[in-house]
Design brief:
alpha/beta, Rossmann fold, 5 strands, transferase, transmembrane helix, P-loop_NTPase, Sulfotransferase
Amino acid sequence: MVLKDMCFFNKVLLRGPHLIKPFVLSADILVIKSPKKSPLLLRMSVLIFSMVCGVFICSVCLKQISTHARTMLMELQSEKPSRNRFGLTDVPLLHYPNPVSFNRSECAGNPVRFFAILSNQRSGSGWFETLLNSHINVSSNGEIFSVRERRVNVSTIVQTLDKVYNLDWFSSASKNECSAAIGLKWMLNQGLMEHPKEIADYFNRRGVSIIFLFRRNLLRRMVSVLANSYDRYAKLLNGAHKSHVHSTEEADTLSKYKPIINSTSLLVDLKDMEKRMAKALEYFSINRHMILYYEDLIRNRTKLKDVQDFLGLPQMELRSRQIKIHRGPLSDHIKNWDDVNKTLHGTAYECFLQTDYSS
């Protein structure tokens, strides 16, 4: 009953216009809230702004990291001797050898430095060694370990080294008893990499300073290796094989041969060369050393002053009679140049195609 009365009462309120007036709401009482704006657009704007800022910050950081890494690589490639760089001593150790084959007489009190040139074939080591030997106080005895019997095992290697550093090794480079620096040239494939720990320990024990000599343009080195191997059998110079020449005529004759490079394995071969050099640097990083590049020696002869400082020698102008064989662009020295150019184009080794060190 009560429910029916309430329903009737509501109907009267809704139907009776004279009764509705008390329920009309004035503008002062009625407050209409505007609908809230959707936050989706605002959130999307903030998200996009955050993404843009993040990308910008990351790009700046990556650029700084890349620049730092490139700078470190350039410093390594152009490494020059300086104090506190070698980890052992700032100056080469001094020795006073007492050879059994002769008497140093009045030079017995003169100190001697020991060194070893570690390199690869056709990397300018022969030319570099003639430069060193032009110094009146230096004797570098060549590729002693090219003879297999001298590198059969660690014992024969040590015996040979002892003979060299005791001044009892005689070669065309041997100077008088007053030599101030004694050393040799040692190729990485002549037993050096087979016994790295024992040799590194020997160098440390005897105070031998290492000069690493490498070639940046490995493609040019490959051309030189192939051409030299061919001439061993062809003997282009009047029936005689020469790895190094002293006249432009001889150089022109040898450079006429254009080797064919295996473009299929070229990238792998170049990477293998790089790995071998990196391994050598890793094995002998504990030794006092400096790093040289053939191209730097050609372009900047002040590098030779760095070498003399490294060995603790009085400065002299160093000279060599050797003539560079493969001059000018590489396209003049590779028979299948188009294949090689196509293989290296767009790779990390593309720079090898254009670089010319003839100057």
